[in-house]
Structures are given as C-alpha cells and as structure tokens.
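The aim of this short unit is practical: by the end, you should be able to scan a pair of folded records and say something sensible about each. We start with the first protein, listed as its amino acid sequence and then its structure tokens.
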Amino acid sequence: MGRKKADIDAEQVEGLAKIGCTASEIAAVMDVNCSTITRRFAKELDKGREQGKMSLRRAMWKSALGGNTTMQIWLSKNALGFADKMESKNEHDVKGTDLLGLSPATKAQVLKELGGPSE
C-alpha cells in the first residue's frame, strides 16, 4: 500500500508560480518533495509562470507609457530591437585620398587629433 497523497491546493501552486517561485520553493512551502510539485502540477506551474510574465510585461508597458524613461529605453531595445550601437561609415580611404578635400597639412592635423596614422 502506497503513501497517502499530499493534500496540495492547485490554485496556491499556480499563484506561487505566478509570482516567480520555483518548483523547489513551492515544494518547501507545501512541505513536499519538489518532484511531487513538478509531476502533479506541471500545468499549474506553466500557467502561473505565463500569467506572471504577462503581469510583469503589463506593468513594464504601463510604466513606460507613464513616462519612465529608463523603461522606455529598455523596452525599445528589447521589444523593438533598437541598439546603442554607433556605426561609423568612413566613405573615404584615409591612406589614399584627402579627407573631404582637405589639404594634406589639415588632413595630417585631423588624423593626429583623432589618433590615426599621420603621413
């Protein structure tokens, strides 16, 4: 004869998963083995985690739309794919031609100030 099944509230498991608790943490609260939680309440764990992510996402959007600049920047990078990357496009060959028609002396001065090679 097997052991008596632990009486665990599925809604409580889902609620704890919703606030980000791990299966191990939930098991500790329920005073059962972690495998009991993952085996018997996989659906509740998944649903709670997804609801938690949705709640967090909602709060982040609300914060950004409310004027939180830091959140606006973070979301622009993560949700919209923006980046801080600054690309420099040098359309002139520094070694072979004058930069934007500068005289050789002026070009040498500019390159020296920029830390580039001088002629």
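Turning to the second protein, read its sequence before its tokens, just as you did above.
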Amino acid sequence: MPTEIYKNSIILTHWGRMDVEHKSGTAFSRDNYNHEVEDPHFQPKGWTRLIDGHPCYNASKDLVIPSLKLPEHYRTSPLLGGYREGGEREMTVESFYVSGRGSQ
C-alpha cells in the first residue's frame, strides 16, 4: 500500500509481515508480491515502489485480523448463540457501538 495511506490510516489486515524490506517467499507466481506489474493505464510506474520501505502494519495503530473461516467453523460459538449440551444458550446482553463517524 502507498506509504501516505500506510502512515495516515488505521489498517485492518490479515497479513502481518513486520520486516521493513520484506520479500515474498512463495513459489506461486500469483502470490509473489515482489513481481513488478505494470499497466499503461492503471499502473504505468508499477506498484512495488508503493510497498517498499515499511512493514505490512504498525502494531501501535493497526490491527491484524485472522483469516476468515467457513460459517460451519463457528456453529457452536457461544458468541453467536451456539448450542451447548442441554440446549440453546440464552443471550442476555446486546451491544451496539458507533464511533464518531465523520467527525475530525
């Protein structure tokens, strides 16, 4: 991601490389993010220059979120009202949070 966005945003990511000059270790070409891709219309200067010089996230401001799993994985989660032995768990607390959206 461009450094300007990296420095001025809170990043929610599932990727957590912390080395500043990180290199892809994959043999699968579509996942190799060190391979420069240029497009005369969308990326005339390429894109790897945009990811150089900073880690994937900053632990003091950003958040690494685990990769998504299929819904079946969470079927028994008590956070989703999942089933336990003896029947369905009754939910007693409901929560809703909205931050200062749009205010600066």
